Known about the structure:
The complex is a heterodimer.
Chain A: H1 3-29, H2 36-48, H3 61-92, H4 94-107, H5 116-123, H6 126-151, H7 155-163, H8 168-206, H9 211-220, H10 224-251
Helix pairs in contact in A: 2-10, 3-4, 3-6, 3-8, 3-9, 5-6, 6-8, 8-9, 8-10, 9-10
Chain B: E1 7-19, E2 22-34, E3 39-43, H1 50-58, E4 65-70, E5 73-74, E6 82-85, H2 97-108, H3 114-127, H4 143-156, E7 161-165, H5 173-190, E8 193-198, H6 201-207, E9 210-214, E10 222-227, H7 236-239, H8 243-259
Parallel strand pairs in B: 3-8, 3-9, 6-7, 7-8
Antiparallel strand pairs in B: 1-2, 1-4, 4-5, 9-10
Helix pairs in contact in B: 2-3, 2-4, 3-4, 6-8
The structure holds adenosine-5'-diphosphate and magnesium ion.
Residues 16, 24, 26, 44, 46-52, 217 of chain B line the site of adenosine-5'-diphosphate.
Amino acid sequence: xxxxxxxxxxxxxxxxxxxxxxxxxxxxxxxxxxxxxxxxxxxxxxxxxxxxxxxxxxxxxxxxxxxxxxxxxxxxxxxxxxxxxxxxxxxxxxxxxxxxxxxxxxxxxxxxxxxxxxxxxxxxxxxxxxxxxxxxxxxxxxxxxxxxxxxxxxxxxxxxxxxxxxxxxxxxxxxxxxxxxxxxxxxxxxxxxxxxxxxxxxxxxxxxxxxxxxxxxxxxxxxxxxxxxxxxxxxxxxxxxxxxxxxxxxxxxxxxxxxx
Amino acid sequence: xxxxxxxxxxxxxxxxxxxxxxxxxxxxxxxxxxxxxxxxxxxxxxxxxxxxxxxxxxxxxxxxxxxxxxxxxxxxxxxxxxxxxxxxxxxxxxxxxxxxxxxxxxxxxxxxxxxxxxxxxxxxxxxxxxxxxxxxxxxxxxxxxxxxxxxxxxxxxxxxxxxxxxxxxxxxxxxxxxxxxxxxxxxxxxxxxxxxxxxxxxxxxxxxxxxxxxxxxxxxxxxxxxxxxxxxxxxxxxxxxxxxxxxxxxxxxxxxxxxxxxxxx
Lengths: 260, 265
Ligand SMILES: Nc1ncnc2c1ncn2[C@@H]1O[C@H](COP(=O)(O)OP(=O)(O)O)[C@@H](O)[C@H]1O
Ligand SMILES: [Mg+2]
């Protein structure tokens, strides 16, 4: 085995040992804190029956994750549907940029959770509220990156469009989008990452279903090992989401299709 | 060859506003008549306004005063009858060589059916001898090949005038000579009207029927016009010792480095 491969396995394993040691020490110092072994055993139990459904508030871990993912993808899809056209408009029109910019700058730094009570009041529905919060989370990076992509279209390409007398529609699809798509996907990848962060907090507040709710529920049940399991699973799912998005992004990036 | 001007640049001024009420007079009273099938080169020191003239003819920039007529029709917007070959080729990097040309053909020749489009594209790829590279992407081919694709794309839409802004400026001298030969051969075959901007004296004499020499800016205009009375096809090797060639060359060098020398470059 090459030296590099040995390192790639040995170093994380070593660090894993250290983490387990720290964790065990914490578990000894704080009464009731689950030990690594207890947590492992609980994990096996949780994963052994991930799809059970005893009605509202008592469902298997896979169902909880699925309902969180559904909300994330719902809000994310809405954000793409609105954000990409708005980003294209802002990128192509100076007037649109001037009109939108102050609002984007002011709304972007607002925590999406601040919208949650308002959404709850308007929709009176937990699912809709969570989807709306994810929508508000996801839309800013998508708008900003799409507009950035449009503005990075070089003057030369636009001159080609002018000489060929492309219609605005043809210009968008044949010149602007091919350049902007990699930027749009960068925005989408950022958005999805933040959306996955935000959904956990949102579900702790809305309750009912979802991985965020599950963690909070297990806190109320004094079932602390499940909180740790929740953290690990959220991390794993987030990592998988990011990898898939990166994969899709590369696929649509003309610069990465086997050429420089 | 008809005697009425094919392309008529009639007392054209170009003034760039610089903001705060300031302005830069780039061109003043430029008059030039170009015949059909002619190859004309425009030569001058950098910054004198060569690209500005070309952009006005292309319709990519607006004329401040005067008018440019192509076959008696006023030019006020870009259009495919005036194809442009840009200095940096400006091929679309996400399309292959074939697709870059096809995109132009599909747009401009909407009368062709798919098979005719294909034949048409292939014909122009063959014209620049790039059949072997037709499925490659711009990033995979050399600078000289990219420029040939740019020429093929421009010619494929069968323009009335081919406008070239220092098309070989970014290339090494061997590649440059090779492309000049390509261009001369293609012009013999297609009989295009070509306006080529250059700052290379030899290129100007070798390629053109007339060399337009520009004075320095601001308020640049046409200083002298030189007729190059050498028959086509031209052979760069035999021209080296040709009287007419050497005289033309001398006249341009005299203009650029004595009469309108620019000392700050
Ligand atoms: N958009 C513009 N705004 C202001 N000045 C310009 C603009 N474009 C060109 N100029 C000026 O006009 C002059 C001629 O430019 P150009 O035609 O590009 O010269 P060249 O002969 O090198 O092609 C230069 O001094 C340049 O600075
Ligand atoms: Mg120039």
